[in-house]
Fold:
Amino acid sequence: MKYQELSKIALDPYSTEKSIELLKLHGVSAPDSVIEQFYIDHNSNNRFLELYGDLSLHELKWELVEFDTTKFLKIGRNASFPDFLKEVSEDASHFEEVGEAVIDCREVVLNHWKMHGTWLSPPIFLDANVLGGKSSMPHLVEGHSRVGCLLGIQKYGIIPLADKHKVYWGFVHKGT
Structure:
């Protein structure tokens, strides 16, 4: 099944759990969070269809891995929405005027950042070679606000960050 074919499946708009189960019945294998954030939430998004429409979901493998903070500095424009990523990262430049709301206005999210120096929910990345790019280069699929926030916090030194951050890493396993 290709990413562009997801929109043909009658997902339940009122139940993420039922939609996840339905996709699994269609042979989609991924962590529930990846299915929700990438396959369900964005399957009709034109930008996602342009970038990921030809991806074979059955070939993609997913792992929950940790990236060093420095790896995020290498993303550059290698994201679904690179301009938005940069915009979010620069929100941190307004810390003096806005305060901690530049991190997040939701108390539970803000407190998690302050206590753990990282996000609550891992963002989603693809190995860039899946899209024809350089192998092991991270391509940000979903989580631009989270990653942008991390980049801004790092750049402007707002709070201490963890050394490592969990992400969902999608890749195509060769040779099996």
